[in-house]
What does this fold into?
Amino acid sequence: MIVVGGEALIDLVPVAQPPGALVPRPGGGPYNTALALGRLGAEVAFCSRVSADGFGESLLAGLRTAGVDLSLVQRGPEPTTLAVPSIAPDGSAAYGFYVEGTADRLFTLPGALPAGTRALALGTCSLALEPGASAYEALLRRESGRGLLTLLDPNIRPALIADPAAYRARFLSWLPYVSVLKLSEEDAGWLGGRVRDWLAAGPSAVVLTRGAQGLAVRTREAAEYEVPARRVAVADTIGAGDTVNAALLHRLSALPAGDPVDWPGVLSYAAHAAALTCTRVGAEPPYAQELSG
It folds into this structure.
């Protein structure tokens, strides 16, 4: 079992016709990661607080369809968080958010995770917005202490971070509890640190997504690997990084403890999955059978 913790929200995605129209689509980095894992055939549970409104119901319906376990989902009457992406000509997205008084911010630390849980993934808005951020942080520390594989994707959204210096310090405090740190080049630039320093603080590997340049990883043993991106017609990049999270978790969590990681193979699998996501509008990760060829 892989547990993914964090927000579920609605992306209001701009479409060409009619001009100025916004189409609601399920989103949120952790939500997309859980959805992608379910589509890849992994045993996965989503750990979050989701609104009881219509958007919340549709979000959970999407996870159910993908086979995601919802037993760790908390519910609340507050509205669903909304994100409004603006799409650049290259397909990249920037975001504005409506987060005040929304349900996912009120997440509380759950009890024990399901028996057989092997990995925990956290990231994005849920680690930037209190009071839920402290609960997710406590979950990370607790489960790392139990020996779980932990993946952190900070997926920085500057509009949600009121005090960048405080967030950067908090980010460094998480690293001793992180097995794999995955982040984009943009995230790395915003955080301002160095990969070797992050590795020294705790993670066994740092995976860097580089858009059209592909993926790279550096390990604590100083091994470095790169794979190119797959060439596709890009609709947008929404959910591509989250699909990378899912692909990494799917492959890494299946390894017996102590076995070496085939990083070129893992990265190639993740690059293929992310490329397929980029061919679709909104966060629509691929299914396992689409990656079997």
Remarks:
- The longest strand covers residues 9-14.
